[in-house]
Amino acid sequence: MEEIDIAVTGGKLRVVSWPGDGPVVLAVHGITANALSWTSVARELRGRVHLIAPDLRGRAGSAHLPGPFGMAAHIADLIAVSDHFGVERPALVGHSMGAFVVAVTAAAHDVGPVLMVDGGIALPVPPGIDIDTALHAVIGPAMRRLSMTFDDETAYLDYFRQNPALGDHWTPDLAAYIRRDFTGTGSSCNIEAIRADAHDMLTNPIPAPHPLLWAPRGLMDEPRGLYQHDQLTGVDAELIPDVNHYTILQGAGARRVADRIISLTT
């Protein structure tokens, strides 16, 4: 694994690269996540592709980047990453909000195959709902932590451990992912970036005719996940059993995600 800074509008975007012998795949994380959410998938890929995951604008190593925020900014940043690596039609994979990012990028540019992981399909939110209200309803503690302060790294990790979707599936990779987000007092996430992305994701969803891997359990390991079967009529959707919104990527589901990446790119 290596870290690279890539020139984008307003400064440098931090990117994590797991080199490999196969095609380039750009991997996009969720709304309050960071590039290291892809570590488990990278390990399962075993160098069969070159996996490249940015810290999205307003998060972790890219937290310093200014607005404007939202899907258009992410599209431009992904194209800048693709250009940096000399790839004209990169394969794209996105988790959660990142699945919406790859879907809108594919709609705007000629890219390679696209895979969505527990995201990318319009969520059922009431019209006109306040964005912060929607964020608290959909992502819960991931949103609450953005306004919280923590005494130290141990307290920050403990906050995540309290979520059964994470604490019951704790790994060193998960701890490293969480540490990447910690500033010394709280989360690196820029709340204005989060709001702009949520606005675009929740109010302007686009048709996403791409394969979807989805989790039966939710962000608190509750038995109802982001999606239900009746929401996925006509979608090329594969249910990954016994995973939640996080472990589909960072736990038991990582191998299946890696296998689908390989099948789409070879």
Automatic annotation (TrEMBL):
<protein>
    <submittedName>
        <fullName>Pimeloyl-ACP methyl ester carboxylesterase</fullName>
    </submittedName>
</protein>
<dbReference type="Pfam" id="PF12697">
    <property type="entry name" value="Abhydrolase_6"/>
</dbReference>
<dbReference type="InterPro" id="IPR029058">
    <property type="entry name" value="AB_hydrolase_fold"/>
</dbReference>
<feature type="domain" description="AB hydrolase-1">
    <location>
        <begin position="25"/>
        <end position="249"/>
    </location>
</feature>
<dbReference type="GO" id="GO:0003824">
    <property type="term" value="F:catalytic activity"/>
</dbReference>
<dbReference type="InterPro" id="IPR000073">
    <property type="entry name" value="AB_hydrolase_1"/>
</dbReference>
<dbReference type="InterPro" id="IPR050266">
    <property type="entry name" value="AB_hydrolase_sf"/>
</dbReference>
<dbReference type="GO" id="GO:0016020">
    <property type="term" value="C:membrane"/>
</dbReference>
